[in-house]
TrEMBL record:
This is AttH domain-containing protein. Residues 12-162 form the DUF7065 domain. Residues 164-282 form the DUF7064 domain. It comes from the Bacteria. Pfam families: DUF7064, DUF7065.
Length: 293
């Protein structure tokens, strides 16, 4: 398994564990676990986000179906977990275990609304250059509400200041039916950068892809289509089912987080499924996504 780290910060198995915070209120550490079935009919995600200087954790678990079903466990005042990353809130217990650092992890949720027991087997590791963060395309197996599940997804881990109310961004990750994985992220910061983007060809290794860009069409505030442009080809992303979250800052500002399970269609005819997010802080339209030049 190849580890690609675009950053100057070291990346190793020890980074799977929690990191010491600095003194800023919005210092955050988070773990994401996305999943989609091979046929694109069922998907979801889990996110555990720690705000130690704010005295709370955020726990999200969302499940959607292609026919419009949605179930969610959302807690923005969860107790901060210990090193074992187990959270017990009102009506739920959630556990997150890295059983083999950078290679295997497990996610468990027990609640009246939803139960998850999933294992993530890593297919590659990609570290960002612009912030301490890494992404791992994965094969995902286990059970959802007691029923067998097999699919794919991505998990990531990041730490540092996370101000949800100041910057909009797009993040997208998918696995194509031919076995290829793709990932691209860009923030709306007023300039173009070498954005975090990778591809993993069928049976190959994760490689950084320079020159990634994206353009989104909206109907009101709702994204209807995004075109991801990688060198030499484009992939069109269309939402299948949304699992949004509303986020309120310590000062009362509100941001919307319309995350969706999506269908991906490459211009060479390949099809796949994954997750995309279009983060919308206050006044996000002032920095809306624009077509690439």
């Amino acid at each position: 398994m190849r580890i690609v780290n675009m950053g100057e910060w070291p990346l190793g198995p020890e980074d799977e564990h929690p990191h010491p915070p600095n003194g800023e209120l919005l210092w955050n550490e988070s773990w994401y676990y996305d999943f989609v079935s091979e046929d694109g009919d069922l998907g979801g995600y889990v996110r555990l986000g720690l705000y130690p200087n704010w005295g709370r954790a955020w726990y999200w678990a969302c499940l959607v179906t292609a026919d419009g079903g949605r179930t969610a466990v959302l807690d923005h005042e969860a107790p901060l977990p210990g090193e074992d990353l187990t959270v017990t809130g009102a009506g739920y217990t959630a556990a997150h275990h890295t059983t083999d650092p950078l290679r295997r992890a497990e996610v468990h949720l027990s609640s009246a609304a939803l139960s998850l027991d999933l294992t993530y087997e890593t297919a590659g590791v990609y570290g960002y250059a612009i912030t301490p963060r890494y992404e791992m395309p994965c094969e995902v197996t286990g059970t959802i509400d007691g029923r067998a599940f097999r699919g794919h997804g991505e998990r990531d881990h990041s730490w540092g200041v996370r101000d949800w109310w100041s910057i909009s961004w797009l993040w997208s990750s998918a696995r194509m039916r031919d076995g290829a994985y793709l990932h691209g992220m860009r923030a709306n910061v007023g300039l173009e950068l070498d954005w975090p983007a990778f591809q993993r060809p069928p049976g190959g290794e994760v490689v950084h892809v320079p020159g990634f860009s994206a353009a989104t069409t909206f109907d009101g505030d709702l994204p209807t289509e995004t075109v991801l442009r990688f060198p030499g080809h484009a992939t069109t992303v269309r939402p299948i089912a949304f699992a949004p979250v509303t986020l309120t800052s310590p000062g009362g500002a509100v941001a919307e987080f319309p995350r969706a399970m999506c269908r991906y269609e490459s211009e060479d005819g390949r099809v796949g499924f994954g997750w995309t997010e279009w983060h919308q802080p206050p006044d996000w339209r002032e920095h809306a996504w624009r077509p690439p030049v």
